[in-house]
Amino acid sequence: DARVTQTPRHKVTEMGQEVTMRCQPILGHNTVFWYRQTMMQGLELLAYFRNRAPLDDSGMPKDRFSAEMPDATLATLKIQPSEPRDSAVYFCASGLRVNYGYTFGSGTRLTVV
Amino acid sequence: TQLLEQSPQFLSIQEGENLTVYCNSSSVFSSLQWYRQEPGEGPVLLVTVVTGGEVKKLKRLTFQFGDARKDSSLHITAAQPGDTGLYLCAPQRNQGGKLIFGQGTELSVKP
Q1: B74: distance to nearest CA of chain A, Å?
Q2: Which residues of B touch A106 (CB under 8 A)?
Q3: Three-class SS of residue A60?
Q4: DSSP class of residue B60?
Q5: Each residue's pLDDT tens digit, A5-64
Q6: Cα(B109)–Cα(B16) distance, integer angstroms
């Protein structure tokens, strides 16, 4: 089965450090999402791309978060500097068309201490 | 911003019972998806409904899209422990593909 691969699965870092999370979407998928999940807020959309172009990043704190797709096989989400409130599970998802559904990765669990 | 409400937030039942969870909004949607998320994993697509009044069945799960395309329900018959998880609805307002999720219903089915 094709899958979305996220690395790392777990990351513990100190406040102020830079964190980079990576996502390999399913080959051929042209839409990529980044979500953050916490108990309090649920699944929040941070950013999404179509054909590698950013379509919406309004859910992302601009001063510290950045999302890019350097090529069709890699999406990155970077936090610099990280803060304890960034602790969450970050998911990447990819797909072709909304009615076909999107495939999620297993997430990166980030803990900022 | 669309207001989306899923209910109940939490549901704990015994194996064999039936249940229904709801996804409601004041907005009209072009389509709606249901996902299930198990601990430690990402959400997995269960179904997409597109037409008002549409009913889709997936084994013991029955999904309905409201006639006015503002709400949806998920009914599970004879729940099993394997149905345990977080059920999320994700409506779409246009064909732009943006996927926004409700807060979800946390279902626990005890043997």
Answers
A1: 17
A2: 40-42
A3: coil
A4: T
A5: 999 999 999 999 999 999 999 999 999 999 999 999 999 999 999 999 999 888 898 899
A6: 9
